[in-house]
User: Fold this.
Amino acid sequence: MDVSIREVQVQDKAQWRQLWDGYNAFYRSVVTEEITENTWQRMLSDQSSIFGRVAVVEGEVVGFALSVLHEGTWVTSPICYLEDLFVAENQRGRGIAGKLIQALIDEGKAKGWSRLYWHTATDNPARKLYDRFTPVEDYVRYRMNL
Ligand SMILES: CC(C)(COP(=O)(O)OP(=O)(O)OC[C@H]1O[C@@H](n2cnc3c(N)ncnc32)[C@H](O)[C@@H]1OP(=O)(O)O)[C@@H](O)C(=O)NCCC(=O)NCCS
Assistant:
């Protein structure tokens, strides 16, 4: 199976949207149309620190990784936060998410980012994949909606 990873492009919108809906259903979350559209536009904009990479199999977008580059007080080069990762159900278990993560690592090394990180639920079975990249840290997350 030939999987390519590339930047998200304007013509991916319908396919990305279907995956995005699947991702939000997985998290039982409702993201409004306004936010969804805004996120899509920011991914395509050079002015935004949000960016998207997609996995393509036989011309079809089957997965995505959405990330945010931000500054840090302990480093001078950008830090990449991988915020959203999703692969279509019928394409799972074929290494596609692994390729999306590896592409971010390669890009970050090439562009001089200092760090890549992501969060996941403690019981997410995808940890089997994540553990192959780096050991888990002994931190917990506190989050407040404001
Ligand atoms: C997590 C997710 C992106 C993984 O995509 P994927 O393309 O199937 O992952 P990979 O094929 O690269 O995974 C490689 C390994 O991890 C395991 N793995 C990854 N995700 C898994 C999952 N959800 N359930 C069971 N095993 C999983 C695979 O079994 C595989 O192991 P193997 O090579 O020993 O068989 C996909 O399952 C998904 O979209 N899940 C719903 C959304 C989600 O959980 N996103 C991540 C939030 S942090």
Q: What stands out?
A: The pocket of coenzyme A is lined by residues 23, 26, 85-87, 92-98, 120, 124-126, 128-129 (CB under 6 Å). The first helix runs from residue 13 to 26.
